[in-house]
């Protein structure tokens, strides 16, 4: 990307967020746009593919705190207007200043940030015309759905991903097979040219190579000289045991390829966990609600309750209240340090909707035998005392 691109492109507008948007707002907007514009969702739609690349490029800058700071500073300095006609900097007349000299390694800078370093970081160039600097590829984010058991135990799943990747035809050089890019003779590979006007000097992106520092005489037909194409690839992703819903897994070096032999970005996989029909989750503990009868709670019993691995026996003491939660240790989710959570069993009285004559008679006899016991007496007394 040339220096002109960095300043003239409005990455915030590309993602549909204001310049003061938070990192979470930027991420949320990118995810929605990426889903809507993804090549898999729009087969054969070149406009959607172009927009998908532009959105990914914008997110690659705004999701990186350091790049975003540099980008914001550059836009602030040039009034978000970028370069005006003839390559001059907006607001500095027909020539402009040599910012590298003005704020560079001179005494008396009062700690001001060197604009030469700022633009070196933005445009991927070394100060002093040392040629283009390798740029790290953008991070890529995708989503995957797994079932509850896979999340608890861990799983290895295939992931089909369409994203920018190094062109396999030219190996990322952008040049036709059998040829190579050549150093731009106008800027000597720096991507910037210096001009003097009166007492001042200024720099601007090289018009011949558009700030890239190199020329491609015969572009690769598959990537049109970009060195990058949208490719569909299948990855094997290892889901660690105990992953939770909404967690992101980072796969280092599996994102977009870097520029000029720069390092590849990372791939982040957002995990969605399908709820289980029986079990729930509370941190590293599994939860389950088990129906019981009134006699079981009153008289006490031993229950058989389910776990993810089978069944276990659970002793219920006489007089246990409905809604009580009992703990079965070591039957939960295994932590990364090797420790295992527990199974939390909540007991709920199951009330039958119908009774036969024998059951009804027995229940009526019980009610008569316990008529002197009013379970609501205590709560009524407390309510009256609190008036």
From TrEMBL:
The keyword NAD does not apply. Zn(2+) 2 binds at residues 184, 187, 206, 209. Participates actively in the response to hyperosmotic and heat shock by preventing the aggregation of stress-denatured proteins and by disaggregating proteins, also in an autonomous, DnaK-independent fashion. Unfolded proteins bind initially to DnaJ; upon interaction with the DnaJ-bound protein, DnaK hydrolyzes its bound ATP, resulting in the formation of a stable complex. GrpE releases ADP from DnaK; ATP binding to DnaK triggers the release of the substrate protein, thus completing the reaction cycle. Belongs to the DnaJ family. Coiled coil: none annotated. Binds 2 Zn(2+) ions per monomer. Its cofactor is Zn(2+). This is Chaperone protein DnaJ. Residues 10-75 form the J domain. PROSITE patterns: DNAJ_2, ZF_CR. Zn(2+) 1 binds at residues 167, 170, 220, 223. Residues 154-232 form the CR-type domain. The gene is dnaJ. HAMAP family: DnaJ. The J domain is necessary and sufficient to stimulate DnaK ATPase activity. Zinc center 1 plays an important role in the autonomous, DnaK-independent chaperone activity of DnaJ. Zinc center 2 is essential for interaction with DnaK and for DnaJ activity. CXXCXGXG motif repeats lie at residues 167-174, 184-191, 206-213, 220-227. A zinc finger (CR-type) spans 154-232. Keywords: Chaperone, Cytoplasm, DNA replication, Metal-binding, Repeat, Stress response, Zinc, Zinc-finger.
């Amino acid at each position: 990307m040339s220096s002109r691109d960095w300043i003239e492109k409005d990455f915030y507008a590309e993602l549909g967020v204001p310049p003061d948007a938070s990192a979470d707002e930027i991420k949320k907007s990118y995810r929605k746009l990426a889903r809507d514009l993804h090549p898999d969702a729009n087969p054969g739609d070149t406009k959607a593919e172009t927009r998908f690349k532009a959105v990914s490029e914008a997110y690659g800058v705004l999701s990186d705190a350091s790049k975003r700071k540099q980008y914001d500073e550059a836009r602030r300095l040039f009034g978000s207007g970028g370069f005006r006609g003839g390559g001059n900097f907006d607001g500095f007349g027909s020539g402009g200043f040599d910012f590298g000299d003005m704020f560079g390694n001179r005494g008396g800078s009062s700690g001001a940030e060197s604009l030469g370093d700022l633009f070196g970081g933005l445009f991927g160039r070394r100060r002093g015309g040392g040629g283009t600097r390798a740029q790290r590829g953008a991070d890529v984010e995708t989503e995957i759905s797994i079932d509850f058991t896979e999340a608890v135990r861990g799983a290895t799943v295939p992931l089909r991903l369409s994203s920018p990747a190094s062109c396999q035809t030219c190996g990322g050089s952008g040049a036709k097979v059998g040829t190579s890019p050549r150093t731009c003779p106008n800027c000597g590979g720096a991507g910037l040219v210096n001009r003097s006007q009166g007492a001042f000097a200024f720099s601007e992106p090289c018009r011949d190579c558009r700030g890239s520092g190199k020329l491609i005489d015969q572009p690769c037909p598959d990537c049109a000289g970009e060195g990058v194409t949208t490719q569909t690839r299948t990855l094997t992703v290892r889901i660690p045991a105990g992953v939770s819903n909404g967690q992101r897994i980072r796969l280092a070096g599996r994102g977009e390829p870097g520029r000029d032999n720069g390092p590849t970005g990372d791939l982040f996989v957002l995990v969605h966990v399908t709820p289980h029909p029986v079990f729930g989750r509370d941190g590293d503990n599994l939860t389950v609600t088990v129906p019981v009868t009134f006699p079981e709670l009153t008289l006490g019993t031993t229950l058989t309750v389910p776990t993810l691995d089978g069944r276990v026996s659970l002793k219920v003491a006489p007089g246990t209240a409905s809604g009580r939660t009992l703990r079965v240790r070591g039957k939960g989710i295994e932590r990364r340090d090797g420790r295992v959570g527990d199974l939390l069993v909540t007991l709920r009285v199951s009330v039958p909707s119908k009774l036969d004559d024998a059951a009804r008679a027995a229940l009526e006899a019980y009610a008569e035998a316990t008529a002197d016991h009013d379970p609501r007496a205590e709560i009524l007394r407390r309510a009256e005392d609190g008036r």
